[in-house]
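Dear colleague,

Following up on yesterday's call, I've attached the two folding results inline so they're easy to grep. Please treat them as preliminary; we haven't cross-checked anything against experimental data yet. The first protein's sequence and structure tokens come first.
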Amino acid sequence: MNFLLSLDRGWWEATEDDAREFQFWRVTDPRNPQRVQRSSFYRDAAGLKTFHRWVGGRYQVVNPFEELETSRGRKQEDVKWLDPDGYARWRDLGLRGLDLDGREDAAWGGRNEQRDGAFADGLYGTGLRLSEWANVVLPELPEETRGRGYYTCALADACAKGGYGHTYWMPRAVLSGVLPYMEGSRARAVRRAQVAGRYERVAERQVVVGTEGRRAVTLESEDGERETTAWNDLAPPARKLLFRRTRQGLEPLALWLNEDGCPGTGTAGITRSRPRTSGSPRWALRTSAVHRTCFGTRWR
């Protein structure tokens, strides 16, 4: 619409020449700083073609996209996925520092295998996007219950893609991997940070002083002011500033912490692979999209 307005033309007056010019501007024109890939343009053009077919049959409007090829909008990339055994092998080799026989590899140089393994299992088990799983906080984790295979969880709107939170299900195996991480490497990182007084130096930190289940939380700022807000409305930047008081001192509510005990994304081991895994699917380390594809195959 904006393109046609720049030509001083209404959408019902568009011609085939306009459609071709629009394609050039969206995909090729160097004067356009927001050019898109051809596949993206063809998907949009297919929708415009369908719209004009519908409106044309009712109001005799010419379809300027009728002769424009849009079939190439279909993605031709080779979609990669792993079955459960393949994923477990990749995780053990690439993130946990094990060899092909399941023993600790003397050549392993990683330092966060417990965190990274639990993080990857969460992506694979829940189907969440990387940024969504990275911003889950401790109070949003389910309580471990004997005999349950899955736990019903809620993703906050403020952390979800497009701002649309949703229900998701966490397998028991995922929670069983997260809990040892919390009691192991995460707890050690928190204790080191407490001894160093690192958390007291965090500017604009908010301390949790009360909760209403998983619905709302009352926060206290450094100057003593209190405010109650819904967990659902807490965006990722705000979540990284949340703390709770313990007998040992302040502790972050963020689940995924760096070695210094400060909130991070928990993705360091997911975004790069070690050299000796070159024979295994290194592409799986690049993005959570592969984890989500693998997650989908588990339910087919």
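Below is the second protein, in the same order (sequence, then structure):
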Amino acid sequence: MNEDFNRQHQDIRTEGGFKYGDLPEYVDYGYLQKIARMNLAVLSNLASSAGEPEDVIMLTSALTNKTTLKWNAPKGKLPSGYYVLVRETTSPVWEKKIFVNDTSATIAYSKDNYFLEYSLQMPMDMKV
């Protein structure tokens, strides 16, 4: 299904006997119902998901080639785990994703040579 520019992005009007614009008689209500249900399911899943980790810090006191991150679990629903995203400082894209199911992680990547996503990502828990 493609856009019909005689219907979409038009002011409602009649020219030469042709009706322009988004009018109820041209709506595919079955398709609209499917899209509305999908949007509702996505919003419900997002609303019931866990919040973001809080107070994320990188410990820098130890002189080591490993990196230690610590954070507090979000309030409310707890996630099943977290992903720490890693990339070299010269890379524009994330290169590694490390799963952690605790509120701290020591990973074998130097804080000097790699950029770590401190906010962390939580896996999508499809359980509602």
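For the second protein, one point worth flagging: The helical segments are 29-47.

Best wishes,
A.L.
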